[in-house]
């Protein structure tokens, strides 16, 4: 497990964490979230690399570059969750175990947020637990990868 590398992808507007709708998304900044993820990874003996972009193509490019470098992906695609066939296809194309996460419970929000293009190709989805959604997603992904002997 010492060589395990996990990619964490953050989609659009997540760079505004801590200031954007804190009643929904909390008061932690994206840097805080990334630091917590890297600390959690370190405690599990896993390297965690985080990337955020507001641009769909940049996220797709980063997913393509993950092949052969990372053993799994945790993704909060933000609004692209509900709109991006391109991100879905990129994840399916690299075929790395993927966990979809969301800070808020997308099923308690507007109806257009109830559909995810990513969920059907993910090993699981965790939403509604704030930053714990990311931490639980990372833990679940590492457990999944190590249980299949990757």
TrEMBL record:
GO BP annotations, alphabetical order:
amino acid biosynthetic process; aromatic amino acid family biosynthetic process; chorismate biosynthetic process; quinate catabolic process
Enzyme nomenclature, EC number: 4.2.1.10
- The active site is formed by 25, 102
Described purpose of this protein according to its UniProt entry: Catalyzes a trans-dehydration via an enolate intermediate.
What is annotated about its quaternary structure and interactions? Homododecamer.
**Pathway membership:** Metabolic intermediate biosynthesis; chorismate biosynthesis; chorismate from D-erythrose 4-phosphate and phosphoenolpyruvate: step 3/7
Instruction: Site Transition state stabilizer: give positions.
Output: 20
Q: Does the keyword Amino-acid biosynthesis apply?
A: yes
Q: Please give the name of this protein.
A: 3-dehydroquinate dehydratase
GO MF terms, alphabetically ordered: 3-dehydroquinate dehydratase activity
Q: Where are the transmembrane segments?
A: none
UniProt keyword annotations, A-Z: Amino-acid biosynthesis, Aromatic amino acid biosynthesis, Lyase
Q: Can you tell me which family this protein belongs to?
A: Belongs to the type-II 3-dehydroquinase family.
Q: Which residues form the signal peptide?
A: none
What gene does the UniProt entry assign to this protein?
aroQ
Species assigned in the record: Cyanobacterium stanieri (strain ATCC 29140 / PCC 7202)
């Amino acid at each position: 497990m010492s060589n395990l590398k996990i990619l964490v992808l953050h989609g659009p507007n997540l760079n505004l964490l801590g200031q954007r709708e804190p009643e929904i998304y909390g008061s932690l900044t994206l840097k805080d979230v990334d630091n917590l993820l890297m600390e959690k990874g370190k405690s599990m003996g896993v390297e965690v690399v985080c990337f955020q972009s507001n641009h769909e193509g940049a996220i797709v490019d980063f997913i393509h570059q993950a092949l052969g470098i990372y053993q799994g992906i945790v993704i909060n695609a933000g609004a692209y969750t509900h709109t991006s066939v391109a991100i879905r296809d990129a994840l399916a194309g690299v075929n790395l175990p993927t966990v979809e996460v969301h800070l808020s419970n997308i099923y308690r929000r507007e109806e257009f947020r109830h559909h995810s293009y990513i969920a059907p190709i993910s090993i699981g989805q965790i939403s509604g637990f704030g930053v714990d959604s990311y931490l639980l997603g990372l833990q679940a992904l590492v457990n999944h990868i190590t249980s299949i002997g990757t």
